[in-house]
Amino acid sequence: MAMPDPQVRSLATSPAQQERPDTDRHAIPVLAGSTSYALSEARGKKEGLDLKPQDGRYFYGVIAAAMLIGPCLNFTGVNPIRALVFASVFNGVAAVPLIWMIERIAADRRTMGTPGAAGCPGPS
């Protein structure tokens, strides 16, 4: 990829981006890795980059699938900004009932037990 004229480049990017123009490419493996950890934990599968590929097939499979699906979205016509806004709004709406359920569970003594039981510190 050819870099544009330095004067044009200085208008379009910050000084930090001029020095490291490819830093945005690190987002793909980071997002794939975090997705893999979340899905592996949710499904009770082994997770971790310290696993050998044959021991962590699900974990590494999710990473591979996410890294293939992400770039393929460029060819589907999906507007990435709209997708980001949709995901943010969805997470904001979903957070309200989830936090409410977590608070209800935490307040239930039958679920949480009595304060100070089983080595848990009680109220100070």
Task: List the main descriptive attributes of the protein structure presented here.
0% strand; 6 helices; flat; 61% helix; mainly alpha; 124 residues
Which structural class matches the secondary elements?
mainly alpha
Mean pLDDT comes to: 79
Secondary-structure element sequence? HHHHHH
Strand coverage percent: under 5%
Instruction: Give a short account of the largest sheet.
Output: none
- What's the end-to-end separation, in Å? 62 Å
Helix content: 55-70%
Explain what the structure shows.
- The protein is an all-alpha fold.
- The protein folds into two domains: 24-76, no CATH class; 79-116.
- 61% of the residues lie in helices and 0% in strands.
- Helix 3 crosses helix 4 (57-72).
- The termini are far apart.
- The model has no long low-confidence stretch (mean pLDDT 79).
Walk me through the topology:
Elements: H1 6-12, H2 15-19, H3 27-42, H4 57-72, H5 80-107, H6 109-112
Helix pairs in contact: 3-4
Task: Summarize this structure briefly.
The chain is an all-alpha fold and 124 residues long.
